[in-house]
Amino acid sequence: MKKSGKYIISKKIDGVFTTLYDVYRFLLRFFKEVLFPPYEFKELVKQCYDIGYKSLPLITLTGFITGLVFTKQSRPSLAEFGAASWLPSLVSIAIIRALAPLVTALIAAGKVGSQIGAELGSMKVTEQIDAMEVSGTNPFKFLVVTRMIATTFMIPILAIYTGVVALAGSFINVTQNEQTSFSSFVESSLQNISFLDLFSSVIKATLFGFTIGAVGCYQGYNSSKGTEGVGKAANSAVVVSMFLIFIEEILVVQVVNAIR
Amino acid sequence: MEKPIAPVDMSEHPISIKGLRKSFGDLHVLRDIDLELYKGENLVVLGRSGTGKSVLIKIVSGLLKQDAGTVNVLGQEVDKLTTKELQQLRLKIGFSFQNSALYDSMTVKENLEFPLVRNAPHVTRKEIDHAIEEVLEGVGLSQALNQMPSELSGGQRKRIGIARTLIMRPEIMLYDEPTAGLDPITCIDINNLINEVQERYNTSSIIITHDLTCAKSTGDRIMMLLDGRFEKTGTFEEVFNTEDERIQTFYNYNFTS
Question: So where does this one cross the membrane (chain A) (predicted)?
Answer without folding.
Answer: 51-71, 83-109, 148-174, 195-221, 233-256
